[in-house]
Amino acid sequence: MLTLQFIPYSEIGSLNSDKKVQKLLRVVQEEKIILLEGRLASTEKSELIRKTMEEIDEKFKGIEIEELDLDKKDKAFLEKIKTVLINFIMGSRRGLTIIGPASIIKEIKKDPDKIQLFTEESRKRRK
Amino acid sequence: MGIFGNFLRKFLKALFAKKGNVKLGLYGPPNGGKTTLANKITMDWLGEEMGSVSPIAHETREIQIKEQVTIKSKGKELTFSLVDTPGIATKIDFEEFIKSGMEEKEAKSRAKEATKGVIDAIKWLDDMDAVVIVLDATKDPYSQVNITIIGNLEARKIPVLIVANKIDLKKADIKKVQAAFPQYDVIGISAKYGTNVDNFYESLFKITNK
């Protein structure tokens, strides 16, 4: 059974990077796919990759991660300034991040404004 | 990496600092052609290869360093330490290695070493003076590994050059790589056949401000 867990930004926004990464990785190791409101910083993503590598064993094969950056779609200058100010105050809560165990998610395609997620089952059906 | 690994890293860092060398890192996902490019550079300027290459991912599982590489272009000279890093990935599955024909024991050992290699490559990001991101131009450039590496370098203000490798292949699409990273210089090359490497060498002077 496929389990999706939505994590609102408010649930991780106040955590430091270490705790944020630990929390996300713990959920993924429970074989759940996370739909995270907002985006991680690059340094948080590299920390997530690093921690993932430490956890890899015969059962846990790693993660798949993809994100949608909604800020890029704001083309007007004033709108961009507004976005930067909002991000500065509230963090990167705009956008969406998908993180899941590599044993369940076989492929995530980004095109770049939409995300398609293929699980082991959907891949078999495509064949 | 452990205490010894950290000590070794600090020792090598101190050694480089003494010599005043520029550290040029080759980063990217597995099988982008980092070691093929490293071999091309060292063969062209030192007459020797740097590491082994393989169609099976994660052939490079340890940081490889070649010191005192001096390249020349249009009367200018640039000396750097070339740092070839293991490919950064978000997943490593030993069963994929078995599918490539490896014995189970060897596959598990390769996977374990590969995870350590990714950790080391991330750790070494801080030590680079300039980085060449080597991407397979036939693959989707919008991967989170690529975006994460570039984002980390941007946060550390480390100059970046993007190489769209494997342009000898029909599926290669340099324009797609350029569209994915419009704020960076993208050079299309074939490290295997040496196509356009002169332009690549010229670009190295630009990112190292020489």
A few lines on this structure:
With 127 residues, chain A is of the alpha+beta class. Chain A has helices at residues 9-12, 17-29, 42-55, 77-90, 120-126; strands at residues 3-7, 32-37, 63-68, 96-101, 105-110, 115-119.
**Percent range for β-strand residues of chain B:** 15-25%
Biggest sheet of chain B, in brief? 6 strands, mixed
Strand arrangement within the widest β-sheet of chain A reads: 1-2-4-3
CATH topology name of chain B: Rossmann fold
Structural class computed from helices and strand pairing of chain A: alpha+beta
Specify which chain pair forms the largest interface: A-B, 24 and 29 residues
Number of strands of chain A: 6
Strand order of the largest sheet of chain B: 2-3-1-4-5-6
Structure description:
The complex is a heterodimer of chains A (127) and B (210). With 127 residues, chain A is α+β, with helices and mostly antiparallel strands. Chain A has one domain. Chain A has 5 helices and 6 strands. In chain A, strand 5 and strand 6 form a beta hairpin. In chain A, helix 2 packs across helix 3. The two termini of chain A are 21 Å apart. The model of chain A has no long low-confidence stretch (mean pLDDT 83). Chain B is an alpha/beta fold and 210 residues long. Chain B has one domain: P-loop containing nucleotide triphosphate hydrolases (Rossmann fold, 3-Layer(aba) Sandwich), CATH 3.40.50. Chain B is built from 7 helices and 6 strands. Chain B has a 6-stranded mixed sheet, with helices on both faces. In chain B, helix 6 links the parallel strand 5 and strand 6. The longest helix of chain B has 21 residues. Chains A and B meet through helix 3 and strand 3 of A and helix 4 and helix 5 of B.
Question: What's the structural blueprint in terms of helices and strands?
Answer:
The complex is a heterodimer of chains A (127) and B (210).
Chain A: E1 3-7, H1 9-12, H2 17-29, E2 32-37, H3 42-55, E3 63-68, H4 77-90, E4 96-101, E5 105-110, E6 115-119, H5 120-126
Parallel strand pairs in A: 1-2
Antiparallel strand pairs in A: 2-4, 3-4, 5-6
Helix pairs in contact in A: 2-3
Chain B: H1 2-19, E1 22-27, H2 34-45, E2 64-73, E3 76-84, H3 94-99, H4 104-124, E4 130-136, H5 144-155, E5 160-165, H6 174-180, E6 186-188, H7 197-207
Parallel strand pairs in B: 1-3, 1-4, 4-5, 5-6
Antiparallel strand pairs in B: 2-3
